[in-house]
Amino acid sequence: MDYAVVGFIAVAVLVILVIWFVSMRNGLVRLNVRVDEAWSDITVQLKRRADLIPNLVETVKGYAKHESGVFENVTKARAATISGSALSNPAEAAKAEGAFQSAMKSLFAVAEAYPQLQASQNFLGLQSELSDTEDKIMAARRFYNGGVRELNTKIKVWPNSFFASSLGFPERAFFEVADRAAIAEAPEIKF
């Protein structure tokens, strides 16, 4: 066998391995960026929703002044959903989301007791915006979790699993709410 042929085969195998390695790493980078983008979309929608809450609370507060405990709980839950840890960590965001949903159910339960509030154009407009934002949050969560699924799958498949963690691509956490009962049904916002 000629040394030139052996050398050519060795170079061809090396080129194939380098192309595979570069392709695998670039695929992981693309998926990682997609997951970061999806998480950013979630945080934008959580912030949008949090910006609506003070107006909603003030509107309800005008009609139900004696329900201060409910308003305090909503305010605390709102603050938790936009805290630094909740916006950077899916597990913390999920915990805050469960508390927020429970607080919102209490707020809407108070609102149900005031028919004149239910007829208020301001309240109805805020309800509509909140409903739209909740839909966007659900869509953003689905997109994020889909990206995490793709990234985690690519990290776990063989032979990528040998290289992914050493290249700085850890598995990512899904955005799952710990208290599923708290979000089993979205807060009723139609009167």
Describe the structure.
There is one protein chain. The protein is mostly helical and 191 residues long. The protein has a single domain, classed as LemA-like domain (de novo design (two linked rop proteins)), CATH 1.20.1440. The chain is 79% helix and 0% strand. The protein is built from eight helices and no strands. The chain has helices at residues 3-63, 68-81, 84-88, 90-112, 115-118, 121-156, 160-163, 180-183. It is rod-shaped and about 95 Å long. The N and C termini lie far apart (85 Å).
Distinctive features:
191 residues, mainly alpha, 8 helices, 79% helix, de novo design (two linked rop proteins)
**Whole-angstrom Rg:** 24 Å
SSE run: HHHHHHHH
Question: The biggest beta sheet, please?
Answer: none
CATH class: Mainly Alpha
Going by CATH, what is the homologous superfamily? LemA-like domain
The gross shape turns out to be rod-shaped
The beta-strand count equals 0
- DSSP strand content: under 5%
CATH architectural type: Up-down Bundle
Helical fraction equals over 70%
Distance between the termini: 85 Å
